[in-house]
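User: Hey, my collaborator sent me this sequence without any context and asked if I could get a structure. I don't really work with proteins. Can you help?
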Amino acid sequence: MSVAGPIGQVLVMAPQVEKMDAMSMVAQSASPKSRKESKYTKLARIGAEEWFTLANCPESYTKNFLILEICENLKVLEQFLDYWNLGNFLVPMLVYVGRYVKSVGRLGPGHIFDVFFTSTVLTIKIWEDRWITNTTFAQMFGLPKEELNTNEVNFLQAIDYDLLILPEHITEFLSPLKQL
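Assistant: No problem. I've predicted the 3D structure and written it out in structure-token form, which is a compact way to encode the shape of the chain:
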């Protein structure tokens, strides 16, 4: 399924059931150590405030549910990064998410996984020396490779291919965490 993005891009969305199955499998295999809530909750609050909107959501979908969903996505993607021994890529991935949202505007909750996952793939491609193909990424999460390819191109266009991250970008991103 695809939907028009906030500035006319087409964001391809795989059926939520398949995504949630892949995410649940990774989350269930997580060690108790990786289930720390404080780090994810702080990041999720920033995401809920700055990146996502509850507009057009059912009343039952509350801000707390949004924070929980962001937390779960962050856990899964951090575990994915840990699998590749790339756990330190979580913050650069979120810097890219911030750039994307700044370009396209706040997103609905249905885009959480798509945006986070696409940003994770780009982060690995830019910052890792090993070559990991979109086919591998798509197979690991049960997604169509074409969907990932399309999302990757749209994401790059939205951020104007700005993948440079300087130390001050990290500091700027992390500064709100110190206030929480």
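In plain terms: Confidence is low (pLDDT under 50) at residues 1-38. You can pass these tokens on to your collaborator as they are.
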